[in-house]
Amino acid sequence: MALNLTINTTNPPLGALLAAEHVKDSVKVSVEEGKDTRLHVSDVIQFSDCNSISRYLARVAPALGLYGSNTMEQTEVDHWLEFSAQRLCGNSGLAVALAELDKALSLRTFLVGHSLTLADISVWASLKGHVEWQSQGKSFSHVSRWFFFLNSQVPFSAVGNKYTKKHVPLTKSNSDEK
Amino acid sequence: SQSFSSAALKSPTDLDAVLGKDLGALRDIVVNANPAHPPLSLLVLHGLLCQHYRVLSSVHVHSSVASVPPQLMSCLGPRHPDSYARHMFQLGFTLIWKNVPKVQMKFSIQNMCPIEGEANIARFLYKLLVPYPSDPAVATLVDSWVDTAFFQLAEGSTKERSAVLRALNSALGRSPWVAGSEYSLADMACYCCVMRSGSASAAPANVQRWIKSCENLGHFKPAKMLQ
Questions:
Q1: Cα B157 from chain centroid?
Q2: Lesser CB count within 10 Å: N end or C end of chain A?
Q3: Partner residues linked to A6 by β-bridges
Q4: Euclidean distance between CA atoms B78 and B154, whole angstroms
Q5: Residue B24 DSSP one-character state
Q6: How many pairs of residues across A and B have Cβ atoms under 8 Å apart?
Q7: Burial call A59-71: b when 16+ CB within 10 Å, e when fewer
Q8: Do B19 and A75 touch (CB under 8 A)?
Q9: Structure ipTM
Q10: Residues B63, A43: Cα–Cα separation, whole Å
Q11: Do A42 and B136 touch (CB under 8 A)?
Q12: Cα atoms in the 13 Å half-sphere on the side-chain side of A86
């Protein structure tokens, strides 16, 4: 089975790209640049939001446990997927959201259970793409520890380096790229 | 599979299978909800849970809320006559009207983080009743509609809402239910959010027909009562 993921490079769906990178040994996902982000599953089923794409990829590679290992963990993953999409986008309330996240991570290596899930992937992706995170990050030590731990792992560093460069706001030095 | 209730009764979900082995203490679901936005889907799911399990339900008001209309105090039904004996129940369901920005759920038994958002709580409660579709595409389609319902239909702008109603209308032109041939949480979420947004009467033809099919199932009374 090969899937086709089209991505809008001005606003790359980092979480979906990371999920695709994690499942690549089970499912082949070919990534193409295009106008709108979209995962083509069949002629009738296509997913265009990052969380749906991530959910689908986690479900076609169940052995990896990216969606948690039981109903309670699945529910926690759902919670963090919404948290990453609703609370960590935009600038209002970011500090409040980061404080909550910091509390949740205070005694944990991963957000849900004892291994990597979509929760880590989606929250990491939202912070990675967030302009304010770098300036606010220092105040939240547990989030920072967790963020840089993931940041140094191969799929995260690879996807981060490849897709976040285009996120840098236009300044004099790179405005010629426009 | 035409009727959700009969399908669910055919293969009742075993709580131990979904939640892990019962360790003796009552599994208690505590929901904090803002009376300004009653979580209709959770009230509907509570009604269904009561049909399948022995549920000990109670409603409380937090001090952050000045007063709560009587229909919100009685929305989980009358107090159970056996409510003094917690061991006779399989599930506790405590609803607290509280001034919270988003609906929250705490599940007392497992070491689980507080769950925020009506969509996510609905997913959890639904899984206590019926297993999610096993096909990854259908399961994700259900989740995608659930998000669309709560974020765009219930909370979105007028423009977003009409776009969703159009998409819903074309989905319901292809199949009897929102996510295909089977009734699912997608239908429950969309129905409750169409009701909450007050757009039922102005909805396009397929949506109107589907609203009637949903109402024929008989389990949406709690959502209707609070309109």
A1: 23
A2: C
A3: A32, A38
A4: 29
A5: S
A6: 71
A7: bbbeebbbbbeeb
A8: no
A9: 0.92
A10: 52
A11: no
A12: 18
